[in-house]
Structures are given as C-alpha cells and as structure tokens.
Write a structure and sequence with these properties.
The complex is a heterodimer of chains A (298) and B (400).
Chain A (H helix, E strand, L loop, with lengths): L1 H16 L4 H28 L1 E3 L8 E3 L4 H9 L1 H32 L4 H9 L6 H11 L5 H8 L13 H25 L3 H9 L4 H30 L2 H6 L7 H11 L3 H26 L6
Antiparallel strand pairs in A: 1-2
Helix pairs in contact in A: 2-13, 3-13, 4-8, 4-10, 4-12, 8-10, 9-10, 10-13, 12-13
Chain B lengths: L3 H26 L2 H15 L15 E7 L13 H10 L2 E8 L2 H14 L7 E5 H9 L19 H4 L11 E13 L10 H4 L8 E4 L2 H11 L10 H16 L3 E5 L3 H7 L4 E5 H10 L4 E4 L5 E9 L7 H11 L2 H11 L8 H8 L1 H4 L8 H4 L2 E2 L6 H14 L3
Parallel strand pairs in B: 1-2, 1-3, 5-6, 5-7, 9-10
Antiparallel strand pairs in B: 3-9, 4-7, 4-8, 4-9
Helix pairs in contact in B: 1-2, 9-17, 13-14
The chains are: A mainly alpha (298), B alpha/beta (400).
Chain lengths: 298, 400
C-alpha cells in the first residue's frame, strides 16, 4: 500500500508538469496485462463454472446453462477437503510465524556481519524446485530417515508407525515450503525499526519483555500481516504437499480441483471450487486485515 | 462404432458452440482486450478440424514423440536411446523424444484445448492407453495411418490386431502391453502376494499402495468379487468394489493411491506390497538384485496397452509412420522389450529375443502364452456418461 501511495504522489507531480494523459498512457501496459492475464481468465472461469454437460455426454464438452446449483454441488461434495485446507494452512502459518519471527529478529538485530549470508540462506531453497524440496521431506521423514530413527529410539514412535503419508507430514511440508515468504517480510519490517525507539523504551525503564511487547512487536506488525498473508494464501490452495506427503485422508481442496479438472474432466465443478476457494480466502483476508488495522501500518 | 467422418462433424459443431459462447462473452464483457482474444480464438478455430493438417514431412525431416517414462531402451552410460539413434542415422529424421506422458488424464488435460482448436500440440506421435486412445479416435483427434508407409504393421500380434476402440487398427498401433497385478518386497513378504486377502493382510496395514489408474485398481478388486470386467457389469457391481476400496482406505490399510511413483516407495520401504504394473516391478527387481516380485492375482489381473497415434494436428504424418514402421521390425521390438520388460506386441520378436537374452525370451510377462493370458482381462469400454460417473466415484473414494 505504501507503494501505491508513492506511485499516486509521483503521478500527481508528473501531472503538474506534463500533459494530463501521460500517467494514463503509462498505466496502459499494466492494465492491458491485467485484462489479458487476470480479468479474461477470471471471466472464462466464471462462465465455465455454471456450465452443464452437453446432451451427447462426451467427456469434457459442456454448454452454458447458467446452472448456479453447480456451486452447491461442488461444495457439498468437497466440504471435508475445504475445511482441511483452511485448518492446515492456518496451522502452517502459525508454525511458520513462530519459527520465522525469532529467525528474522536474529537476522535483523543480532547477526552483524553474517546478515547477508543468513539472508541468502533463507532464500537459497528457492533455487531448487518446489517439487524437489517437497520430495526431500519424504526422505527426511521417511521410515529409514533420521527423524523417525531418533523418535523410535526415544520410544515416542512405536516401531510400526511412521511419519510420512500423514497430516503431520503435510503440515510440516507446507510450513517449510512457505517459510521464506514469512521470514522476508518480517525481516524487512524489523530491520526498518529505528533503534532509537528501543533506546527510548530503555530510558523509560521498560525491561526487555516490555520493550518487545510495546515497541518492537507493534512496529513489526506490517511484516507479520504481510508474512501471514503470503503464507496462508498459497498454503490454502496448495496440493503438492498433500499429494506427496499425505494419504487419501489428508487431501486438500487443491487436490479435489486437480482431480476434477484432469481426472474426471469436470471443468464446471473445478471452476466452481476455484471460485469458492478464492471467495473464502478473500473474506478471511479482509476480516483479518480489518482486525489487524494495517491500513495505517503498512 | 460410429464412423470417423460423422464424429468429426460433431466435433465441428462443438467448436462452433465454443466460438459463439466466447462471442457472447466478449460482447457482455465489453472489454476491448477480451474481444480481441475471442476474435483470435475464432479465426484460428474456424479452419480447424474441417481439414486435417497438411503433411510437410518431405520438407521438414522431423518427428516429435510423446511417451511415458522408462518406455524406450536407454543406455544410461552413454545417455542415449540406442534404437532411436539408429533410426535417426538410417532415416535422416530428426526425432525429438520426450517422456511427457505421466498420466493419461493429465496429458489429455494439457492438450485437449489445442486439439479442439486444431492447433499444433507439439507432437507427431502420442502414446496413450486403450481407453484414452479410444476417446481421441472417437473425437476425431487422430489421423488414419497409411499402411503403405507402415508395411511392418502386419507383424502385430493377432490378439491386438482388431480392438473395439479402433477396428482394424486404422488409427493406432500398439506400443507396449502390460499386466496390472501385485508387486511386493520379497524380504518383507517371503510368502508372496497372490490374492487380495494376501495384499490386505493385517501385517501390511499402512504399507500398501494401489494404482491411481481406475481400471487397474478397480479391475483387480472387481475380479476378486467375482465380476467379469470385460463384459457388461452393473453399476452396483462397480460400486461394491468402490465400497471395498473405501473401507480399506478409511481403515488405514492403503498408504497412498498413485501412478508410477509407487516404485520409489517400494525401494524406500515405505510400501511393501502394491497393486502395480508388471514391467515396472521387473525393472525394479533387476535394479535391486531381485528384491521385488510380481504376480498376476489368482482371481485375475488386468491387461492394458499403450497405443501410438498421430494427432490430428500433426504436420509430420509420414515421418511418424516411418518411426512406427521401424519399431514394428521384430529385431528392434526385441531390443525395446529387453529393456522395458513389458509385453511385446510384435510377432517374431521372441525369436529375435533369443539372440539377445534367452531368459527374457522365455518370460511369460514379455511373451505370454495362452495360460498367462487367460488370467488377465481387458476392462470393458465405458460410455462417456459411465466413464464420468465411475471416475467420479473412484476419485471420491481415493480422497479427492
């Protein structure tokens, strides 16, 4: 939002000097891009979501009949997976926040000359494919892997039980995969905190905990909000982790959409589910942003 | 089987419906950009399907082939496909071979839009399983094979020469055939897995995987329940098998439902018994000192084939036919079979195999005799409506 504000400010300056049409012309490529790659597919998706099979019943052929009941059918058939997506994404987001906050804090305030190296390490996993990283977790959590071996030795796990193909593995994979999306915004907002505000807190006899609670954390809130959104939104729509690390009982809404689209070739239901997911996320995010009151913070 | 001509008519009307829908949308949207896009779509699809792509084989010495993974003889030391390289050298063709098919449905989902619009899908040969091949032929998405260019076509096994989805094999040619059955880890299960009860033994709980290919997994369960899957079974019979599968999943017997990747889980030990494909398990066994074994279920396994077809959008038909003809040479077919370990569809390959590896030439899983063939069945062709209904039930049962 800060970005939008500056952009607006700049354009008003330009307007003062040059012809008033210039900013609009400059906007044109962006708008055209949006129209082609966002609005058009969205309209197409909306149109698909209310179609029904043709009379011939041929696989993959549908006609527009404006059947809005498709939405009810879609959600009633995938209620469990829908709920699971939200719950898994929520847990993964909270875990990522709990892991990332100390990490980002350490990088921002305590890392000294190691700062750049640590930041590179946070970003480094991005250099390998998302799929490979998830498959790596199959090995880490696998029955012959280090985690299971240690847990079995500690008698936390019985010799017969494993960790892969479980909800635990899915949430772990999601937490790991989206961790950089949480860490980087947190780091950015923590790093921006003026050290003098912390000194001032000390001067006013606030101890470390009070300083964190009353100064550091509130000032890092924009990072928390940005990080949680960047983690939650892709996590809720993710299906790779559930495919590779889950079992048939941990499938998420992304899996249902994928299966509807590719396996059953039921485009309308896939489209309706995509819209429902989009709507659900939009509502959750709006409520969240309202409550967090980030308008002034970001 | 309705003839191809009338079906491409139907396809044409479908395309028209698609165009008019887009036209309406563009008008309603009132967005210039949308109108522009819709216009693009209309123009290119107008000429689609009505006439088949022009063959430029003589000027463009190119053939592009989409196949499944581990499905062509490969020399891992030299990073080469020996038979393919030999063909390139002898024919002067530039052949691009891609392991781009991982799942029939996913591949179809990727290219269906382009096929409908008559736009090049980037392949001159695609290799798809019977039921999906049937769908392509039904929809007019393939070109007829010119027998004059494929004289070796006569070498096809009699059992495969005439199939329901393509009478007389006018539009397809079998690439490989295989069985679905049980694969297991011999160290963990020395007694083996021969029935569905063996597979779902309490000791295997949570370490069993089944195929995401509906016809194979359901075919084996249905035959266990005494249903003839090659005939006209009832919906109730199919749903009974779905109930069985659902129960095994909810009781935690089945770890995952997946395609080729069950192989990795067998190697890692996460799975010890699976419903899998014959060739896969043999390849695994060869690579792991015979640690794994395959068997057709006593109550019956399934038989499927993957078929080479020339997409309607291909502009290198003759080159594609050259490739097909080459792989129907018994000596070449034997070389491929020695690597992939699936059932070889070419007559005379068994004699050629004797020269390469007499053990493989005697394998009932590469050159099955009547006794082996009597234990497997081909899943019956489904009407589009049944296909959708059954596939939905199967997807739902497997958690989707």
């Amino acid at each position: 939002m800060a970005f939008v504000a500056t952009a607006a400010k700049k354009s008003s300056i330009v307007r003062g000097i040059k012809r008033p049409s210039t900013p609009y012309l400059l906007l044109l490529p962006g708008l055209a891009w949006l129209a082609f790659f966002f609005i058009y597919p969205l309209i197409n998706l909306a149109s698909t979501s209310t179609q029904t099979p043709t009379d011939s019943g041929e696989i993959g052929s549908y006609v527009q009949t404006f059947r809005f009941a498709n939405y009810i059918d879609a959600i009633s058939g995938a209620r469990d997976q829908f709920a699971r997506s939200i719950v898994y994404a929520l847990i993964a987001t909270l875990l990522a926040l709990a892991i990332s906050y100390p990490l980002a804090y350490a990088i921002a305030f305590k890392s000294g000359k190691w700062k750049n190296l640590l930041l590179v390490l946070v970003v480094a996993p991005f250099f390998t494919s998302f799929l490979l990283r998830t498959i790596a977790w199959k090995q880490i959590l696998g029955n012959e892997g280090p985690v299971v071996t240690v847990l079995r030795w500690l008698h936390i796990l019985s010799p017969q039980t494993g960790l892969t193909a479980s909800a635990f593995a899915v949430v772990t994979g999601m937490t790991y995969n989206f961790l950089p999306f949480m860490t980087l915004p947190l780091y950015a907002s923590l790093e921006r905190i003026d050290p003098r505000t912390l000194e001032a807190a000390g001067d006013l006899y606030a101890n470390a905990i009070t300083t964190f609670r009353k100064v550091t954390f509130p000032l890092s809130l924009p990072g928390v909000v940005a990080g949680t959104l960047l983690t939650f939104i892709p996590a809720a729509g993710d299906y790779i982790n559930a495919t590779l690390l889950g079992n048939p009982k941990t499938k998420m809404i992304g899996n249902v959409i994928e299966s509807r689209f590719f396996e059953i070739v039921d485009y309308p239901t896939a489209a309706a589910l995509s819209f429902l997911l989009m709507a659900a996320i939009l509502i959750l995010v709006m409520v969240y942003v309202r409550r967090a009151g980030t308008d002034e913070l970001v | 089987m309705p003839n191809k001509e009338s079906l491409s008519q139907e396809t044409r009307s479908l395309i028209k419906a698609q165009i008019s829908r887009r036209g309406v949308l563009a008008g309603a949207g009132g967005l210039g950009a949308v109108g522009l896009l819709a216009a693009c779509g209309t123009k290119s699809s107008g000429s689609a399907q009505s006439d088949v792509a022009v063959d430029v084989s003589d000027t463009e010495k190119l053939a592009r082939w989409a196949n499944w993974t581990l499905y062509l003889d490969y020399d891992s030391d030299a990073n080469k496909y020996p038979t393919l390289d030999a063909l390139k050298a002898s024919s002067g063709l530039d052949i691009t071979y891609k392991e781009d098919v991982d799942d029939n449905n996913t591949f179809y989902g990727k290219v269906a839009g382009q096929l409908k619009l008559g736009k090049d899908i980037g392949y001159d040969i695609v290799t798809l399983t019977d039921w999906m091949a049937g769908r392509w032929i039904r929809l007019g998405y393939t070109q007829a094979i010119d027998e004059a260019n494929v004289p070796n076509k006569v070498n096809i096994l009699p059992a495969l020469a005439n199939v329901g989805f393509d009478p007389g094999r006018t539009n397809s040619l079998t690439w490989q055939t295989g069985f679905a059955g049980f694969g297991w880890n011999k160290e963990k299960l020395p007694k083996g897995v021969h029935t569905l009860d063996d597979l779902f033994a309490p000791a295997n709980k949570g370490r069993i995987e089944v195929l995401s290919e509906m016809r194979d997994t359901m075919g084996i369960i249905m035959q266990y329940q005494g249903v003839d899957i090659s005939g006209s079974f009832t919906e109730d019979q199919f749903m009974n098998a779905i109930d069985f599968l659902e129960k095994k999943i909810s009781d935690g017997f089945i770890r995952q439902v997946k395609g080729n990747s069950y192989k990795e889980d067998l190697i890692s030990g996460d799975a010890i018994a699976v419903i899998g494909w014959s060739g896969d398990v043999f390849q695994l066994a060869t690579e792991n000192n015979g640690k794994f074994e395959f068997a057709v279920p006593e109550s019956g396994g399934t038989l499927w084939s993957d078929n080479m077809m020339i997409p309607s959008t291909s502009t290198h038909k003759k080159n594609a036919e050259t490739v097909m003809n080459y792989y129907y040479d018994p000596a070449v077919a034997a070389q491929v079979a020695a690597y992939v370990n699936y059932v070889c569809p070419v007559q005379g390959a068994q004699a050629e195999m004797e020269k390469i590896d007499p053990v493989l030439a005697a394998s009932p899983f590469i050159f099955p005799d009547d006794a082996a063939l009597s234990k497997v069945k081909v899943f019956a062709a489904l009407s589009p409506a049944d296909e959708t209904k059954y596939q939905s039930a199967f997807q739902k049962a497997t958690g989707n």
